[in-house]
Write a structure and sequence with these properties.
The complex is a heterodimer of chains A (366) and B (299). With 366 residues, chain A is of the alpha+beta class. Helix content of chain A is 36%, strand content 26%. Helices cover 35% and strands 22% of the residues of chain B. Chain B is built from ten helices and 14 strands. The longest helix of chain B has 13 residues. The two termini of chain B are 32 Å apart. The chains are: A alpha+beta (366), B alpha/beta (299).
């Protein structure tokens, strides 16, 4: 779960990571009001979860209230990919001496966490050569590592205590929220100390059961909530062919195949292993609610999943009028012959080979 | 050497291993215990705290792992407990000297996985998973939830981040006559307690294994590391790969917690480029894997 900047900054403040003074606006009038509170000049920051907001013009500086109004008008309602700007963070302008980078990140390759610093802030850390990456076991960020970071940064001696406090606060926050990433980019400094100009937090979704307080940050749509209720892995996408299957890898691979044929997936839905008929039925119910849907591609490789159950679920969904678009079904594995026979008796065709099913899917679209 | 290394290197007959099931009284644990027993796995004990003294499928149930070891001499454990209890179950198994643990459990917090990995290393034990379909060594050993039909005894080691794709690709390998020596799911999570490289190292000198199939997916850098390892060690066996997720959008978890792209980190393109350098062909379709493997084996 990725938090928006203003949400991440709420948590930063709570754990003692210094952030600029700021307030959230949800419309143009509010933007002007908040700018008065915060004090001019201000920075207007669009709250959408994409990188490179500065370059895309989604972050604007304003020195007068007129300018705030004008820039807020331009930002609110702006569409970026699948996101629309509906919240703008109004923040005081923070003059500074220099920009740095600081993060704590789950290092999947090393199977530990890493503490990352760079003397070049404000750019994508992957593309930066000048950086320090130090691995540690997540439960303790040792002083030796913090000290190595201090030596690398070469900051004025007067900032030493503030730096130690900052590193420790960031680590506390990372552990308390069970984050996979906490990132400050840029981290700015002046003789007065540090400030996190931007904030990024990605929470480990699997740990959310231990953090009821973080649930408020979840941004699920109604359809995602419904899929959650049924216990499906569901990711809405922008196309019009629903992709359904059993097992995350198989669905992911099906998504690739559909895309490879020049079609656009509308979603990723994994019914999970061993799905009985009613789960297949529920899955079809969920995807049928997707707006503008043109077809459903269902790819089943029965292992624990019994193909007969899948067939029953599909037939019931068809009979109940839930399936309103063409369904292309590939079914193989456990009890496939029996399933195919039941489907044929009910006038539903199914394919053995994925390639044949994909050809049929192309024809549906044509 | 660890128990898992002994099995995968061919030094130990897998079907002799005495297996414990943690969470045997649950619906899921019981269902799969029955299938594993049917396949030939030597399940000799189960553990569910508070349910000691019962029998499930003729297998005695104990309250603690310690009792199961004392009474039945179990060496390996397969874990079906819910995510909330995963840490304590695996911790208990490690503490009592179990040296191979298969964690079927899904949705385990990553910090629990990391802590357990740390504990396992100190004891020279291996954890497979979590969020794995397990390990199968046809024709008689299965610590996992995979269907047996796709796995015909053969000469290929299949290591994978995905369950169903393992079944699908193993099925192609079996139909094509190559068959499977062993298939191991490393898990769909960001952290794999046993990773591709560790498994490849274990089968490296096994004369029964002629080639390795790596089934990867988006997210992380496991495949890139495999490529580097192949180059650096001049890996002696041919390796073929399939990678799922070419069409996945960025910053979305595609079913598996570990299947997520950040920026250019974790893309199929990056993994393919790394494999190209290591001379590993990447199949465009799962069905192409046997053909690519046969071409590599000829050379």
């Amino acid at each position: 779960m990725r938090l928006l900047e203003y949400e991440a900054k709420e948590l930063f403040k709570l754990y003692g990571v210094p952030v600029p003074k700021g307030a959230l606006a949800t419309n143009v009038n509010e933007a002007v009001e908040k700018a008065k509170e915060v004090g001019l000049p201000v920075v207007l920051k669009s709250q959408i979860p994409v990188g490179g907001r500065g370059k895309a013009g989604l972050i604007q500086k304003a020195s007068t209230l007129e300018e705030v109004e004008e820039k807020a008008k331009a930002l609110f309602g702006r569409k970026v990919g699948q996101y629309v700007v509906d919240k703008v963070l109004i923040e005081e302008f923070s003059p500074h001496t220099g920009e740095l980078y600081m993060s704590i990140f789950l290092d999947r390759g090393e199977r530990r966490f890493s503490y990352i610093l760079s003397r070049e802030g404000g750019v994508e850390v992957e593309s930066v050569k000048d950086k320090l990456v130090l691995n540690f076991d997540h439960w303790e960020l040792p002083d030796e590592i913090i000290e190595e970071g201090w030596k690398y940064l070469k900051l004025p001696e007067g900032l030493r205590n503030a730096y130690y406090d900052l590193a420790k606060a960031l680590h506390r926050l990372c552990e308390a929220t069970e984050a996979e990433l906490v990132e400050i980019n840029p981290l700015v400094y002046s003789e007065k100390g540090f400030k996190a100009l931007d904030a990024k937090i990605i929470i480990d979704d699997n740990a959310l059961f231990r953090h009821a307080d973080l649930e408020k940050y979840s941004k699920k749509t109604e359809l995602e909530k419904l899929a959650d209720q049924y216990g499906f892995s569901f990711v809405p996408l922008e196309g019009n062919v629903a992709v359904v299957g059993n097992g995350a890898g198989l669905v992911l691979s099906s998504l690739d195949l559909v895309t490879y044929k020049g079609l656009k997936p509308a979603c990723f839905l994994d019914v999970g292993g061993g799905a009985p008929a009613d789960r297949v039925y529920q899955a079809l119910k969920v995807v049928s609610k997707i707006e503008g849907l043109k077809a459903i591609f269902m790819n089943i490789f029965g292992g624990i999943t019994n193909c007969v159950e899948v067939a029953k679920g599909v037939i019931k969904a068809r009979d109940d009028g839930i399936i309103k678009v063409p369904l292309v079904l590939r079914i193989a594995g456990t009890e496939e012959e029996k399933a195919r026979k039941i489907l044929e008796e009910n006038n539903i065709h199914s394919y053995i080979e994925v390639e044949d099913a994909l050809r049929a899917l192309e024809e549906v679209k044509a | 050497m660890s128990l898992l290394a002994d099995i995968l290197s061919g030094k130990r007959e897998a079907s002799d291993v005495k297996v414990l099931v943690q969470g045997i009284t649950g619906r899921y644990g019981r269902f799969h215990s029955e299938l594993m027993l049917k396949y030939g796995t030597r399940i000799v004990a189960g553990v569910t705290p508070g349910k000691g003294g019962q029998e499930v499928l003729g297998v005695p149930v104990y309250n603690t792992v310690k009792e199961a070891i004392e009474e039945k001499g179990v060496e390996a454990s397969i874990v079906f407990v819910p995510a909330k209890f995963y840490y304590s179950a695996v911790h208990e198994a490690l503490e009592n000297g179990i040296s191979l643990i298969v964690g079927i459990t899904e949705r385990v917090p990553v910090r629990d996985t990391l802590k357990l990995l740390h504990e396992a290393r100190e004891r020279n034990a291996n954890i497979i998973g979590p969020n794995t379909p397990g390990v199968i060594v046809p024709p008689k050993f299965k610590m996992g939830i995979m269907p047996p039909q796709p796995f015909k005894e053969g000469c290929i080691a299949v290591f994978s981040r995905s369950g169903t794709l393992t079944y699908e690709i193993s099925n192609y390998l079996s139909k094509d006559g190559l068959g499977v020596f062993a298939a191991v799911g490393i898990g769909g999570d960001p952290i794999n307690s046993t990773n591709f490289i560790e498994l490849m190292e274990m089968v490296k000198d096994n004369p029964k294994v002629e080639g390795v199939v790596i089934i990867g997916e988006i997210g992380g850098e496991a495949e890139e590391r495999v490529a580097k390892y192949i180059i650096e060690t001049k890996y002696p066996k041919p390796v073929v790969s399939y990678i799922a997720g070419r069409s996945a959008p960025k910053e979305k978890r595609m079913g598996h917690a570990g299947a997520i792209i950040y920026g250019s980190y974790g893309t199929v393109e990056s993994k393919e480029a790394a494999f190209a350098k290591a001379g590993v062909p990447v199949a465009k379709l799962p069905s192409e894997v046997p053909k690519l493997m046969k071409e590599k084996l000829k050379k």
